[in-house]
Amino acid sequence: MNIIIIEDEKPAARLLQRKVEKLGLQVNQLLHSVEDALEWFQNNTHPDLIFLDIQLSDGLSFEIFETLEIKSAVIFTTAYDEYALRAFKLNSIDYLLKPIDEDDLEVAVTKYKQRVQPQQLSLDFDMIKRMLVNPVGKEYRKRFTVKLGQQLKLIDIEEVECFFSQDKGTYLHTLDNRDYLLDGTLEQLETELNPKEFYRVSRKFIVPLKTIKEIQMHSNSRLKLILPTYKDDEVIVAREKVSDFKEWIG
Asked: Number of structural domains, the chain?
């Protein structure tokens, strides 16, 4: 396996190298800037795996991907979590916050090994479930009818910021910061929503991709989503769904 580390702080690069090699892997190259990386990629076979810091001495490492087509898998290693959403749109396996915990590093490496197994089935349970309940050509919900006193109100799907469950009820939360009680459950909603646009991140929440403002790292390898107006509770991507969620946001 060909592995390189791109990290502008040389002591941090050497420390990460020791941690990676402690897992039985061999690091072939240490690079320290965007310029160094671009020159190296233009003159060498691209590695299987890159450990990549985001803020380098001469710019953001995203510039490498904007300049060259990099097909290597990437594990991001950074002190900042505000770049998580942008990072996940690349070939990322994981996003590790500094100081890097050795257990988290081992989990990330295991994810990479599982991804490249020749016989590894790439679809997990959630992905298969969505394919089964949402066949090609199915018509999805475009609006909802909610009750306001003695009146009925139509809410277009474009107005939805998220769906959530609370006190055994299912609610629709709109972009203008209003909650409406719905009939049915989140399980039923899953079968009625376009899986390319909506994702059930936990037992409590279904969110549309377009309303995710920010993705932050959270405890126990989970992710926290920041939405435009919903503030009543933290919107957390369950740990077992993180890998599939990253595939979904593509």
From this structure: 2
Residue type, 1: M
- Claim to verify: residue 240 and residue 147 sit in the same structural domain: yes
Residues 6+ apart with CB under 8 A from 26: 1, 3
Query: How big, in percent rounded to 5, are the helix, strand and coil portions of the chain?
Result: 35, 30, 35
From 18-32, 62-76, 156-170, 219-233, the region with the lowest mean pLDDT: 62-76
Q: What is the 3-state secondary structure (H, E, C) of 48-98?
A: CEEEECCEECCEECHHHHHHCCCCCEEEEEECCCCCHHHHHCCCEEEEEEC
Contact 45, 2 (CB under 8 A): yes
Q: What is the mean pLDDT of residues 224-236?
A: 95
Q: Phi then psi for 108, rounded to 5 degrees?
A: -65, -45
Please indicate, yes or no, whether residues 65 and 103 belong to a single structural domain of this protein: yes
What is the C-alpha separation between 41 and 215, in angstroms, rounded?
29
Domain that holds residue 230: 125-249
Mean pLDDT of 15-25: 94
Same domain for 144 and 95? no
